[in-house]
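Quick one before lunch.
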Amino acid sequence: MANYSRLGFGLLGTGLIAPFHAKAIRASGVARLVAASDLYADRLAKFTSEFQCKAYASLEQMLLDPDVQVVNVLTPNHLHVPAVLQAARAGRHVLVEKPPAMSLREVDKMQKVCAAAGVKLGVVLQCRTRRAVQAIRQAILEGRFGQILEADTYMKWFRSSHYYTSDAWRAQQRSGAGVTIQQAFHYIDLLQYLVGPVKTVEAKMTNLAHPGIPVEDTLLAFVTYQNGARGVVQASTALWPGTDLRLEVNGENGTAIMVGERMDTWKFKDDRPEDDAIRHYGSAAVATGSTGAADLGFHDHQAVIEDMVAAIQNGREPLITLASVRPTLEWALAMYQSAKQDAAVTLPLTSEEDVW
Ligand SMILES: NC(=O)c1ccc[n+]([C@@H]2O[C@H](COP(=O)([O-])OP(=O)(O)OC[C@H]3O[C@@H](n4cnc5c(N)ncnc54)[C@H](O)[C@@H]3O)[C@@H](O)[C@H]2O)c1
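Model of the nicotinamide-adenine-dinucleotide complex:
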């Protein structure tokens, strides 16, 4: 039987990521899945039958349901903004999948509309909730690294050509299908969250293994952070069979390396008793997306759902606010601009030309 003390969620879009949200909501104990909506009736029917929720043919209809208190926007990247604005204007809290939008102008508009409507807006960048990431952040805040010298990410993943042709939006630059804004956005966000903001970036983008698909499948970028640290962003979906993501932070007094969701290296000059436990954070058995879009656990999504419910109930901001993601989007857009102009780009971006 439904537990009506749980917050009611409605999912917009029942494609690839929707089951992860549904399972996360179900497992959370603080939320319940009320409804879903999709343009494709058969996809929607299959989903609502599997996850036992109401089906609505449009967002407009779903917003008439008073049990839907939070809308999760799970549509293709370029379609997030109108849905977020519509849900917010109808007084619903919103969780939007990454990247929240395709331009900074749209981010600012969403921010304004959600603030005016008095609703919470959270972004699904679930990797921020990983214990290893939170430990690195805490050590940075405590100054354990000393001056940070390098902060890098290496995402050597694989997606087949079939992945790119399975839906029209997955092969269109303007839909946000390239590896930089689609898969690597999570790890660019982690670097930004931990070490950012960024001062300058120089990026090269190519397509190594997906002929005929007009998006970059490989990114290589050099970055200088505002705090003086340097870094490399390497990201690809061309490198079969796909190996676990690496995120590395090196400071004058310590080094931390996360592989997948697991703490691989945790070493500080001021070794502390709690460090031993931190070295065991995460598990090599949790799939983090290296070999396919379906190769992902839902526990990070669960943490995002639980945080959103707590934010709404306690009147605080969610952990992953749109304002905190804006610099990540700006950095990603700057990399597209840099690759297009074949030149280093300095932030803040003065223009969003030459991005798409
Ligand atoms: N957080 C993560 O780790 C993660 C992983 C995969 C995808 N995503 C994000 O989730 C979003 C969706 O990706 P996906 O892979 O599930 O895409 P998808 O194409 O598999 O699913 C999107 C669904 O949205 C539906 N849709 C489009 N416009 C709609 C509208 N106006 N109303 C109702 N439904 C509509 C489509 O019919 C489709 O079924 C993207 O933003 C993507 O970046 C996040």
